[in-house]
Structures are given as C-alpha cells and as structure tokens.
C-alpha cells in the first residue's frame, strides 16, 4: 500500500509518501506560505531538495501542486494518482470523542469542526487539508489521527480540573494532552525493546514543544499538556505550568489584554523568554556553556521540570520501570538526558555515559545495574499515522 501522510497548519502542509510494503519514505516535503504571496513547496527526494515557487491560494492548490509533482514522469515517483491507496491526516484535537484513529466520514468531519474551539489554529487547517485531499483524490479513503487520542485513557481524577463542574461539562474544559501520536509510537517501540507491554513507563517528548506521559501497561494515565499545548514543561516559546493568576496580574500591571498575555505565554516565554537568547534549545545550551547565566537558568528550569514530572509520574504509577527520551532535544542532547537523570537516583536510575553519547538508533542508555531502563527512541509520527491508516483502510 502507498499512503500519503498529511500534516496541515494554517499556512503550511507537510507531507510524506510512504510505501508501506517496507515502510520507506518515497518522497517528503512541505508547502509553505499557503494563502500568502511567494508560496513555495520544497520536496525531498533521494536526498535532494527540489524547490518549486508558486503561489497557493488554498490548501487545495497545495494538494494539486503536490499531485502534479508526484506524477511528473521526470521524477518517477508514482505513475498515476490512483497509485495512492489512502491518506492519513494528523488532526490536533479530537476532544473526548476519539480515543483512536478513524476513517473520515461526514460525522468525523463534523466532530473535528465541533472541536475547533479547543484547537482554534489547527483544527480548521486540518479540515482544509482533508477537504483538499478529498477533492484531489476522490474515492481514496482518508484517516484522521488525533494528537489527543492516546491520552483519552487518563482516569477522570487525572484529567479533570478542579473548577466548577458546570464549566467542565458545558465547555468540555479538561486536560486532553497532545503529542499523542509520538507518545504512542515510542510506547510501542519501548514495549518491543522491553519484550513486554506490562510495565510502568514515562515517555519524554522533548522538542520545541515538550510533554511527558505516564504510561501504565501501554495505556496513558497522565500527561503534562492540558486543555491546550501550553501547559506542563518549559518549551521553546511556551511557558508550561504557571500560576493561572499570572494572566490577570500581567494584564493589570502591563495594561495588556488577555489575548496579548496569551500570546506572550505561547510565543515569547519558555527558554526564549527566560534566556532572551533563542527558542532553539541548541543555541540556548551553547549560550549556557559560554557562561550566559539566563541561558543557564532557562535550561535548569527545563531539566528540573522534566525531572520533577518523572517523579510525579512515579507517584502516579507507584514506580517507574522505564523512561524514554524522544524528539529533537530528547533524541540528540546527551547533556540534557544526563542533567534530567542526575537526581533520579532515588528511583534507581543510572545512565551509562558512553552509551548516552551515542546517536542514531533506538537504544538503552542505562547501566546494567540501573533499576530503571532508560531508552532513546527516535520518534516517527508520520509512520504511526501511516500504520493506523493501513490498519483502518486495508480491508475497505
Ligand atoms: P523538535 O520540535 O522535536 O523538532 O525539536 C527541535 C528542538 O530540538 C530545537 O530546539 C533544537 O535546537 C533541538 N535540538 C536538536 N538537536 C539538538 C542537539 N544536538 N542538542 C540540543 N538540542 C537539539
């Protein structure tokens, strides 16, 4: 089966075309500046970049341009659009309705639309992507894979905010959690590596956006992001958990509107806000190593929050058998992994620094006598989406 994986933002569309017979990526790319001037679509094919500059008024234009490229005989990717067997879409918010991926039909489209207040930037873009693919590839089944789905197994006491229950019911205000496709992918990989599904796992997705999940016997029981992806760990530009009173305080003191403060907490906070250097963890780590004290503080907050979240999840599950690091920082920064694990000796975590300094494949980085297994597992959300898409459409 050949599966097209699509991830739409409000003005962008990332894609991968995957041959599921051997799970290899035939081509990938990103269309940017959709709806703006100077649109550009960049394809990555056999290690080469092919850049096509063309304005795209809508996501449909981006999909049409992509299809034109895929069937272009010059590149030998596919011979006709009918070679694409199914399309899998990343969808941000499935609310409480979806705990698994689903084949898209009218009811699913309506449900994604209904979740727009919970994901105001992403869900409309995801819908545009689905509609554009439906128009360009009529009759080809499409699957929605929700970022929130994996976390739907959280018990109510972990997902319910202690605010008046009428608001919980009326506005569906609760913890949903995000990065679910990544947490699920590394959970499945970790189970393969452990040779069992029955264990207590903390998955740490540490990238520009960052979240942890507590996974008990394969099922998520808690996660650090909340109603939106703003909660939890310190991130590239997002503050993570702060006292909710900070919003009113900043509005009063700085004469800002709630929207302005929301923007500050989402786009100007995190390691960028604290360090004043960058939202890119590599730059902030480098500044810290060069003696920049605010960069040091930004990184210390980051390490501290991941470490204390792991401790919190040890309490949630009455122990931890394994910890997984994934995403940009989690996969690539040995020093971040060392700093996070440093004070987890009470759990029996011991890292082998030689193994920790290696890069690449999924691997264990703990010492033989460590009570807790520690793994680095490169995430692959696109493959997870493609696998779900195959599972749901192969018999259609
Ligand atoms: P992601 O959002 O998963 O793509 O992760 C992006 C983040 O990972 C960026 O802030 C990068 O600076 C960070 N990152 C990538 N490689 C490294 C590295 N070797 N050391 C530290 N941070 C890294």
Describe it for me?
There is one protein chain. By secondary structure, the protein is an alpha/beta fold. It folds into 2 domains: 2-146, 2-Layer Sandwich (Nucleotidyltransferase, domain 5); 195-381, Nucleotidyltransferase, domain 5 (2-Layer Sandwich). It contains 15 helices and 14 strands. Helix 1 crosses helix 3. The two termini are 13 Å apart. The model has no long low-confidence stretch (mean pLDDT 97). Bound molecules: adenosine monophosphate. Adenosine monophosphate (AMP) binds next to helix 10 and helix 12.
Give a brief description:
The chain is 39% helix and 20% strand. By secondary structure, the protein is of the alpha/beta class. It has an eight-stranded mixed beta sheet with strand order 5-4-3-2-1-6-8-7, with helices on both faces. Strands 11-10-9-12-14-13 form a six-stranded mixed beta sheet, sandwiched between helices.
Provide tags for this entry.
396 residues, alpha/beta, Nucleotidyltransferase, domain 5, 2 domains, eight-stranded mixed beta sheet, 14 strands, 39% helix, 20% strand, binds adenosine monophosphate
Average predicted local confidence, pLDDT: 97
The named CATH superfamily of the largest domain: ATPase, nucleotide binding domain
By CATH reckoning, the class of the largest domain would read Alpha Beta
Query: Which band does the percent of strand residues land in?
Result: 15-25%
Bound molecules: adenosine monophosphate
Order of helices and strands: EEEEEHEEHHEHHHEEEHHHHHEHHHEEH
CATH topology of the largest domain: Nucleotidyltransferase, domain 5
- Residue windows where pLDDT falls under 50 for at least 5 positions: none
Globally, the shape reads globular
Alpha carbon gyration radius:
21 Å
Helix-strand makeup class = alpha/beta
Distance between the termini: 13 Å
Q: How many β-strand runs?
A: 14
Helix share bin: 25-40%
What is the tally of helical segments?
15
CATH architecture of the largest domain: 2-Layer Sandwich
Number of spatially distinct domains: 2
The largest sheet, given as strand count, sense and whether it forms a barrel, is: 8 strands, mixed
Strand order of the largest sheet: 5-4-3-2-1-6-8-7
